[in-house]
Design goal:
6 helices, about 0% strand
Length: about 190
């Protein structure tokens, strides 16, 4: 009976040591996982910052294109002021987009959350929004450049929408008269 008691006590002592060892291993494993997760998050933030810095470099380069295209557009507008009137709605649209871009960026940066720009996703969305808006602005500028460069190839009267319709109708009537005249002569 005494032997059974010692055997049982030895088993309980062994079980208690194993449980403590297991709990200790479990705690250390939890600590290691927490440290690994922290390192992973920090590396993810660094990677995101590097990716976003590349996007900012591309955005900066794209803004350079916008400036050079704007200068080209202004030069062409000065050379052909009569045609510049016909694309004035695009000038207006560019102005609206620039103002909207400035307002959105200001609003996002002055966001009430103090850590707005610290969050990688918020920065990504802001950069993408700015880049999209800048591309739209550049697209309108390029359209104006294209229209002004090709302005002399098409007579001015065809550029004015109301007159263009009358000219097309007149052209169709003259074409019909010529066809009828050809049939009469044969």
């Amino acid at each position: 009976m005494v032997f059974e008691w010692y055997a049982e006590q030895a088993f309980l002592d062994s079980y208690e040591k194993q449980r403590k060892l297991y709990d200790d291993i479990n705690n250390k494993t939890t600590q290691i996982i927490a440290i690994q997760e922290y390192i992973y998050q920090q590396l993810k933030n660094v990677n995101s910052a590097l990716t976003q810095s590349k996007k900012l470099i591309y955005l900066y380069q794209y803004l350079g294109k916008v400036i050079s295209n704007s200068n080209k557009m202004l030069d062409l507008s000065a050379q052909h002021p009569e045609y510049a009137v016909l694309v004035s709605k695009y000038y207006t649209e560019i102005g609206k987009q620039v103002i909207k871009l400035q307002q959105e960026v200001t609003q996002d940066i002055l966001n009430e959350d103090k850590d707005f720009l610290m969050d990688a996703m918020d920065r990504e969305m802001l950069i993408e929004k700015v880049f999209t808006r800048v591309r739209n602005i550049n697209g309108n500028i390029l359209y104006i450049i294209l229209r002004l460069q090709n302005a002399k190839k098409i007579p001015y009267l065809f550029k004015v929408p109301v007159l263009k319709n009358y000219l097309n109708i007149d052209k169709a009537i003259v074409g019909d008269i010529i066809q009828k005249y050809k049939h009469l002569i044969k």
